[in-house]
Amino acid sequence: MDVFRVFVAFLSLCVSAISAFSQSLDSDFTFTLPAGRKECFYQSMKKDASLEIEYQVLDGASLDVDFQLHAPNGHILASDYRKSDGVHTVETEEGDYMFCFDNTFSAVSEKIIFFELILDNMDDREDSEDWKAYVQGTDLLDMKLEDIMDTINSVKARLGKSLQIQTVLRAFEARDRNLQESNYERVNLWSCTNLVLMMIVSGVQVYLLRSLFDDKRKTRT
């Protein structure tokens, strides 16, 4: 019987460990925001959860966009004006949160925008705590289950942070690459323009010199 109780407690611990890793949900999305347009997205949240949103403008003139985060009751929780990137974290209530990217101030240039959502404490904690009912009154060979859960949660948080940093670094790399390609095209355009202007100026100079000599010959004759 004791062996069975130990096995049940160990199995419940494994299940709770897996559920601990699933409490943080990450998602990212890249989209094109046309000139003069505003795009809004919605995210359903639970009470006492955490919503973190990070965005970056990867491509487009001036690399800027307007941003607003709205609560389910319509209140504005965060807003940015013509920024290239931003990070906002809020403690949520039950309901749908809306966040909008506004490019209406630009009449010509479209923007490529990347954003990432990190949702914490979205799982029901009652299920993850059910395993404790099986270990009441058992010794489990003096294992400190609370310490094990703290370690698992710490590892989960660090893995989530590492994934977030990698995603942000990829977004920075994409934005820098787009900026370099844009600068490369501008340099080529101005180089070609200067080359054409130099050829025109050279031709005009040759024509003027020839016309001067032609005038002198006509005056001698």
Q: Biggest sheet: strands side by side, in what order?
A: 1-8-3-6
Largest sheet: 4 strands, antiparallel
Strand-pairing-aware structural class: alpha+beta
Give the tally of β-strands: 8
Order of helices and strands: HEEEEEEEEHHH
Strand coverage percent: 25-35%
- Helix content percent band: 40-55%
Mean pLDDT: 77
Distance between the ends: 130 Å
Q: How many whole angstroms does the radius of gyration measure? A: 32 Å
What's a concise summary of this model?
It contains 4 helices and 8 strands; from the N terminus they run H-E-E-E-E-E-E-E-E-H-H-H. The protein is α+β, with helices and mostly antiparallel strands and 221 residues long.
Could you walk me through the main structural features you see in this protein, from its secondary elements to its overall organization?
Pfam families: EMP24_GP25L. InterPro entries: Emp24-like, GOLD_dom, GOLD_dom_sf. One of its GO terms (cellular component) is endoplasmic reticulum-Golgi intermediate compartment membrane. It comes from Triplophysa rosa. This protein is α+β, with helices and mostly antiparallel strands and 221 residues long. Helices cover 47% and strands 30% of the residues. The chain contains four helices and eight strands. The strands form two sheets. Strands 1-8-3-6 form a four-stranded antiparallel sheet, with helices on one face. Helix 1 packs parallel to helix 4. The radius of gyration is 32 Å and the shape is elongated. The N terminus is likely disordered.
Reconstruct the topology from this structure.
Layout: H1 2-21, E1 25-33, E2 38-45, E3 50-59, E4 65-70, E5 76-83, E6 85-91, E7 95-102, E8 111-120, H2 125-128, H3 132-135, H4 145-220
Antiparallel strand pairs: 1-8, 2-7, 3-6, 3-8, 4-5, 4-7
Helix pairs in contact: 1-4
